[in-house]
């Protein structure tokens, strides 16, 4: 399963450098089907890494995974499309509402049987208008983990990726870390 996870992650992230606009849609669209798979309690989903995506309010009450699901969540506090604090979804799933990022993360911390998360600040290495706070809970049940990168001041963007649309439309892109590298290392560490 680990090899499959890494391979799938590499496949999903391959276009990140050159076609982020495409990947943006992919990332948003991946979140919902992956949650549906998780809800089904199948053996297919043992990890997820939603970037700028959270749980829809219509899915949340029915999400009862059969076993722990490792989660790495990355989300900007100034995301204009999928609001950090939840509410109206202005992205591709517009017309729906979302659970807040912290509520989504706390759901997984509880569901995965995690210890209380530790909270640290990433080094603010780039003058990009963002900082990042990392919430890390591990080990959880069955060696799973629940990690959240809160990009303070960050938008609906891929940290380390292109500023694919103007800041006025999608918000700022963090240069303090590379989401692709972070996701890869997370999967390798499971
Ligand atoms: Ca910074």
How does this structure look, described?
This protein is 31% helix and 16% strand. It has one domain (2-188). It has a 5-stranded mixed β-sheet, with helices on both faces. A two-stranded antiparallel ribbon has the order 3-4. It has helices at residues 2-13, 20-40, 101-111, 167-170, 179-188, and strands at residues 47-48, 70-76, 87-88, 97-98, 118-121, 131-137, 146-152. It has 190 residues and is of the alpha/beta class. Strand 6 (131-137) and strand 7 (146-152) form a beta hairpin. Residues 1-44 have low confidence and may be disordered. Bound molecules: calcium ion. Calcium ion binds at residues 124, 126, 128, 130-131, 176.
Beta-strand residue fraction: 15-25%
| Distance between the first and last residues' Cα | 10 Å
Q: Per the principal axes of the C-alpha atoms, what is the gross shape?
A: globular
Strand order of the largest sheet: 1-2-7-6-5
What is shown here, in short?
The chain is α/β, with parallel strands linked by helices. The protein has helices spanning 2-13, 20-40, 101-111, 167-170, 179-188; strands at 47-48, 70-76, 87-88, 97-98, 118-121, 131-137, 146-152.
Structure keywords:
alpha/beta; globular; 7 strands; 190 residues; 5 helices; two-stranded antiparallel sheet; five-stranded mixed sheet; disordered N terminus; binds calcium ion; single chain; 31% helix
Give the helices and strands, then pairings:
Elements lengths: L1 H12 L6 H21 L6 E2 L21 E7 L10 E2 L8 E2 L2 H11 L6 E4 L9 E7 L8 E7 L14 H4 L8 H10 L2
Parallel strand pairs: 1-2, 2-7
Antiparallel strand pairs: 3-4, 5-6, 6-7
Helix pairs in contact: 1-5
Calcium ion binds next to loops.
């Amino acid at each position: 399963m680990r090899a499959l996870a890494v391979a799938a992650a590499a496949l999903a992230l391959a276009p990140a450098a050159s076609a982020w606009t495409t990947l943006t849609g992919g990332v948003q669209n991946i979140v919902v089907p992956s949650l549906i798979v998780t809800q089904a309690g199948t053996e297919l989903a043992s990890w997820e890494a939603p970037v700028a995506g959270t749980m829809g309010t219509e899915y949340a009450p029915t999400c009862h995974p059969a076993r722990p699901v490792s989660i790495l969540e990355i989300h900007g506090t100034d995301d204009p499309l999928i609001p950090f604090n939840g509410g109206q979804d202005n992205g591709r799933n517009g017309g729906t509402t979302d659970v807040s990022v912290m509520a989504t993360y706390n759901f997984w911390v509880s569901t995965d049987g995690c210890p209380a998360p530790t909270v640290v600040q990433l080094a603010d290495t780039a003058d990009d208008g963002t900082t990042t706070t990392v919430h890390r809970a591990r080990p959880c049940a069955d060696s799973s983990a629940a990690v959240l990168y809160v990009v303070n001041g960050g938008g609906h963007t891929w940290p380390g990726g292109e500023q694919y649309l103007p800041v006025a439309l999608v918000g700022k892109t963090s240069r303090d870390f590379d989401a692709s590298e972070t996701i890869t290392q997370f999967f390798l560490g499971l």
